[in-house]
């Protein structure tokens, strides 16, 4: 990775921590896949856009209905647990 790419990732991580009031280091707990049968959804203010079959990094299990995830473009947001499948 180039220095510019590293700085961009660091900036995105800091913005995530500020937006979601996340403290501590960002650790990936597990990886999960979006259900291929689920409908694709646009992202919202704090929701992650969903694509069928996409693999997401799970950052935090927030509650019974949502998971805090990161996609391959290093975007963060909440995803409904109902559309997630274990790998």
Automatic annotation (TrEMBL):
Gene3D superfamilies: SH3 Domains. GO terms for cellular component: plasma membrane. It comes from the Eukaryota. One of its GO terms (biological process) is integrin-mediated signaling pathway. The keyword Mitochondrion does not apply. It holds the Pfam family hSH3. Residues 16-85 form the Helically-extended SH3 domain. Keywords: Phosphoprotein. This is PRAM protein. It comes from Leucopsar rothschildi (Bali myna). The gene is Pram1.
